[in-house]
Amino acid sequence: MSQQIDHLLTEDRRFAPPADFVQNAVAKPGIYDEAADDRLSFWAARSRELLHWHTPFTNVLDWSNPPFAKWFDDGKLNVAYNCLDRHVEAGNGDRVAIHFEGEPGDSRSVTYAELTAEVKRVANVLAGLGVGQGDRVAIYLPMIPEAIASLLAVARLGAVHSVVFGGFSADSLRARIDDAGAKVVITADGGYRKGKASALKPAVDQALSDRGDGEQATVEKVLVVRRTEQEVEWTDGRDVWWHDVVPAASAEHEAEAFDAENPLFILYTSGTTGKPKGILHTSGGYLTQAAFTHRNVFDLHPETDVYWCTADIGWITGHSYVTYGPLANGATQVLYEGTPEFPEPGRWWDIIEKYGVSIFYTAPTAVRSFMKQGREIPQKRDLSSLRLLGSVGEPINPEAWMWFREVIGSGLTPIVDTWWQTETGAIMISALPGVTETKPGSAQVALPGVEIDVVDEKGEAVGNDAGGLLVVTDPWPSMLRGIWGDPDRFVETYWKMFADKGFYFAGDGARLDEDGDIWLLGRVDDVMNVSGHRLSTAEIESALVAHDATAEAAVVGASDETTGQAVVAFVILKESFLKDNSAEGLANTLRQWVGEQIGPIARPRDVYIVGELPKTRSGKIMRRLLRDVAEGREVGDTQTLADTAVMSVIARQVK
Ligand code: WTA
Fold first, then answer.
1. 419: Cβ below 6 Å to ligand 1?
2. Helix (H), strand (E) at residue 572
3. What phi-psi label fits residue 187: left (phi over 0), alpha (psi between -120 and 50 degrees) or beta?
4. Ligand 1 and 421: CB distance under 6 A
């Protein structure tokens, strides 16, 4: 079967960066040439300029044993020193590192000097609990400053953190603890979500309890932050209160330098099925690309900007763009504990107004849910401090992009649509906001120093104005170094498809337009084949969202006797629209609309109006489950859904 993906949607809106933005931009147009001249020297120069190396490196890339890369491997550094101490030593200790906003409304601001002292104390505590270089520490915390301090304290010791998202169950936590062989868990009594104190410690207790298989957990100590004052069960000798030991610990701690390839963290991604993969990242290359992209893609001016990334630290975005990138660059950022809807819709806009946020990085799923609620809510707030918006996690449909720019960005702010993965560690494809003329819906171009192509199934470049498979053709500094404990699976999963070319295959479909700009088309597993045409989910979903009535849409291919597969759409309507219209009348209108927008071949066979879509906890639509419904099957494994009840509601609505 040809891997060529048909292209149907046309988008010709263009936005040049505002003149004052261009003038003060961090990244200038010459950066592309500099990287193209000599990619490795480019990265070496960025690393030396953005980081402090205790022992400077002389090697840049060692690719003698692909796909196992080493970057800067004869250099030594301390990641936490780079994120903390050096800013204090440079006289910026009084700069706020974190404006913390708790969901109940409590808030505190932590300076770089305070955060540095706190991390030193936590590092001393962890060392006292037996944590040393190479040991694994599981972190299961809400979005509170202690979470960031914990990651950095582990990094400071040359140990390895494995953050497990607070929404995961005791079983998921245990599986990740076991796989990594974690020695210590850092958790909290609980955190605030949707106006309630939700518990975390009981899940840790359950995870560590005897599971009847005779296997003892590897965990020796549990360090517990008090956040919600909920009652907790206590295991003497194992459990330690943070507030008993951290304030009493010494704030003196010398940051030891570790090898550039010292492991920094493991982060589990679920993949589509099966056992989660422990994606392994190391220190020097990862921090280089995290810092470089954070500074250039977000145009960070650390003295004046207030940056806010809404991702949870349980995801890669929370590692690279809440923790390491911003702190390495000495940024001031907002950290918010709760949900956008508490105490009422508009909380995020209140926070932007309160702190004067200038750079705002979020996910398309959030943007679409705000579109659903209506623009009146953000329009009641003063969002004039915003000067740059960013998007990550899924293709952002052109209409969602336009809404984001017009309603949140007052029609002026550049938007950077950033494509990357847990595996890539940092942003790979994005506009540079003072350089690139942006196109709604396109992630645009590979960053300087990153080599991307779109190829057919033989690995041949498809060229402009064609679709195919997205690959990374050359190693990059923040690339994953492997899957924890499973080198074969690493090779098999990412490198086997194009083994002869040495390409990394990302699993995504993409198209190059006539200018060579990249459009992400969704996961190739989700591509549909209708009468021999390979259609991308992203384009048809974008067409649906372009209709006034639609807030969000998911499209799947369901087997069909005549066409092989047929397009089936699940659509959420905007609330304003629901007030005046019946949902039922609309399915036909939307079918026709798609036919007009992108052609009869893409016209959905069925359009179902639903109230919710099945999403993972990081907000990605799980099309596999919708395919089950569309084909009339029993719905498959819903464990990784944020809300497991959603599928039964959808199945009922469809019937
Ligand atoms: C998707 C998140 C389109 C893509 C940082 C990728 C995107 C997967 C974009 C990785 C984007 C991420 N446009 N699709 N700007 N960003 N994706 O590991 O399918 O949670 O392979 O990392 O999200 O998801 P992950």
1. yes
2. strand 564-573
3. beta
4. yes
> Is 618's C-beta closer than 6 angstroms to any atom of ligand 1?
yes
Answer yes or no: is the C-beta of 269 below 6 A from any ligand 1 atom: yes
Residue 185's identity, in one-letter code, is: V
- Check pocket membership of 198 for ligand 1, CB cut-off 6 A: no
Handedness of CA 111, 112, 118, 122 (dihedral sign): positive
Compute the distance from residue 551 Cα to the ligand 1 centre, in Å: 20
With the most atoms of ligand 1 within 8 angstroms of its CB, the residue from 277, 279, 394 to mutate is 394
Q: Is 362 in the pocket of ligand 1 (CB under 6 A)?
A: no
What's the gap in Å between 268 CA and the centre of ligand 1? 15
Distance separating alpha carbons of residues 218 and 200, to the nearest angstrom: 19
Cβ neighbour number for residue 235 with a 10 Å cutoff:
12
What is the best residue among 277, 368, 392 to mutate for testing ligand 1's pocket, by most ligand atoms within 8 Å of CB? Answer: 392
**Where do the H-state alpha helices sit in 549-585?**
575-580
- Mean pLDDT over 379-387 rounds to 98
Ligand 1 mean position to 561 CA, how many Å? 33
Closest ligand 1 atom to Cα of 523: 19
Helix (H) and strand (E) counts in the chain: 23, 30
Closest CA to 332 of 85, 115, 24, 48: 115
Query: Would the pLDDT of 4 be above 80?
Result: no
How far is it, in rounded angstroms, from Cα 576 to Cα 290? 40
Dist CA 617 CA 402 (whole Å)? 25
Of 547, 557, 562, nearest in space to 522 by CA: 557
Angle between helices 39-50 and 284-297 (to 10 degrees): 90
- pLDDT score at 1: 36
Q: Is the pLDDT of residue 536 over 60?
A: yes
Q: What percent of the chain has pLDDT over 90?
A: 85
Residue type, 56: P
Q: Say which CATH class 527-654 falls into.
A: alpha beta
Q: How far apart are the first and last CA of the chain?
A: 34
Give the angle 65-69-74 at the CA atoms, nearest 5°: 105
Q: Are strands 263-269 and 277-282 parallel, antiparallel or unpaired?
A: antiparallel
Q: pLDDT tens across 6-32, in order?
A: 776 778 899 999 999 999 999 999 999
**Mutate which of 419, 442, 623 for ligand 1 pocket (most atoms within 8 A of beta carbon):** 419
CA 394 to ligand 1 centroid distance, Å: 5
Whole-number Å distance, alpha carbon 350 to ligand 1 midpoint, is 28
Q: How far is CA 465 from each of CA 7, 398, 451, rounded to the nearest angstrom? A: 8, 18, 19
CA distances from 231 to 167, 188, 197, 198, 228 (A): 19, 11, 11, 12, 9
Atom of ligand 1 nearest to the CA of 417: 15
Domain coordinates in residue numbering, the chain: 527-654
CA–CA separation, 627 vs 523, rounded Å?
14
Q: Specify the ligand 1 atom closest to the Cα of 423.
A: 18
Q: Could you tell me if 439 and 11 are in contact, meaning their C-beta atoms sit under 8 angstroms apart?
A: yes
In tens, the pLDDT along 152-168 reads: 999 999 999 999 999 88
Q: Would the CB of 508 count as within 6 Å of ligand 1?
A: yes
